[in-house]
Design a protein that fits this description.
InterPro entries: DUF6533 (IPR045340). Keywords: Membrane, Transmembrane, Transmembrane helix. It comes from Dichomitus squalens. This is DUF6533 domain-containing protein. The chain has 323 residues and is mostly helical. It has a single domain, classed as Rhopdopsin 7-helix transmembrane proteins (Up-down Bundle), CATH 1.20.1070. It is built from nine helices and five strands; from the N terminus they run H-H-H-H-H-E-E-H-H-H-E-H-E-E. The strands form two sheets. A three-stranded antiparallel sheet has the order 3-4-5. Strands 1-2 form a two-stranded antiparallel ribbon. The termini are far apart. The relative contact order is 0.13. The C terminus is likely disordered.
């Protein structure tokens, strides 16, 4: 026997609330695990760099957005409206450091003539969720009292069909951005990594960048593909697919924040280990070298260290600004 619409609505709300709490717990658990690295690498040192700003924005915008999303909505319409607007703004803004990170990474690894066009394209594609989340959550937003649920309910005039199109456009832009960065990462680091694997020893910087970059952007790509696939399939009204879509939607943003934090921590550790070093490391490695401009280096930090790609026969590729 099918449940009534009211029972189904309560069940879906209960399900969403519990998975929202799971997302917050997952995020807080990772913060506890990496807090010592955060303090050592980003708080200590006496100066604020671009890497520090990007890391902290990624960590705490997402944390604030997840806490607001998991918190119960106030029964007062006025309070509920303010809380929901704050949540909508924070949820959209958390994509800004992720877009900057993707753009900087593509800028770092692209050869000189293509750095600005490709990084600008990646940033534009990665920034689409900022606009779509703002519009989808806040456009002509209003709250009404629901006496059956005993709380205020958000409503807007956007149709389900329009929201579906917006979701597809958002996921398509993120998929395109991740594919571009994956291609650039593989193209620029695979050769040096393959060469370095011929000689035994500890992993080189090239292998670290290739592995971490592949895991990071491939994971985001898979999440975006699954989100869009389940969203499109869920239009048919399959309850199991709708549940899967909800789980991915609730966990995607915390997982993105966690992956970004881990990647930035690894890059900061590598940069700290090579500060002040101008030496060229062994075959097949990617080398961080100090910036020629002291002011630029101080602000950008590990985002502005330089990479040298060493090839066979002692030849060296161009030196790029990098993460």
């Amino acid at each position: 026997m099918a449940d009534s619409p009211e029972v189904q609505a309560v069940s879906e709300a209960f399900f969403a609330d519990h998975w929202a709490v799971v997302a917050v717990v997952l995020l807080v658990y990772d913060y506890i695990l990496t807090f010592s690295s955060e303090v050592t690498l980003f708080w200590m040192g006496g100066r604020v760099s671009g890497a520090t700003i990007l890391f902290l924005l990624n960590r705490y915008i997402t944390l604030a957005a997840q806490i607001l999303g998991a918190a119960p909505i106030s029964s007062s319409v006025e309070s509920a409206f303010s809380e929901y607007v704050a949540y909508g703004v924070l949820r959209a803004l958390q994509y800004l450091p992720w877009a900057a990170f993707s753009a900087l990474r593509s800028y770092a690894l692209c050869p000189d003539p293509y750095q600005w066009p490709i990084s600008a394209t990646v940033f534009g594609l990665s920034s689409v969720p900022i606009v779509t989340n703002m519009w989808g959550n806040l456009y002509r937003l209003s709250f009404v009292d629901d006496p059956e649920l005993g709380k205020a309910i958000p409503t807007n005039p956007i149709s389900a069909n329009t929201l579906l199109k917006v979701e597809v456009a958002t996921r398509s832009s993120l998929i395109a951005s991740d594919l571009v960065v994956l291609f650039v990462t593989w193209y620029r680091t695979y050769g040096t990594t393959r060469l370095s694997l011929r000689t035994p020893g500890k992993p080189t910087l090239a292998s670290i960048l290739l592995l971490n970059g592949t895991i990071y952007f491939l994971a985001l790509l898979i999440l975006s593909v699954l989100q869009m696939a389940f969203t499109l399939a869920g239009v048919a009204g399959n309850g199991a697919l709708e549940i899967s879509t909800s789980i991915i939607a609730l966990l995607e943003e915390p997982l993105t924040s966690i992956l970004t934090s881990r990647f930035l921590i690894d890059l900061q550790k590598t940069q700290r280990g090579l500060v002040g070093s101008s030496r060229s490391i062994s075959l097949g490695e990617v080398v961080f070298q100090p910036q020629t401009s002291r002011n630029t280096s101080r602000f950008i930090g590990s985002l502005g260290a330089q990479l040298s790609f060493h090839e066979d026969g002692g030849e060296e590729d161009e030196v790029e600004d990098t993460l």
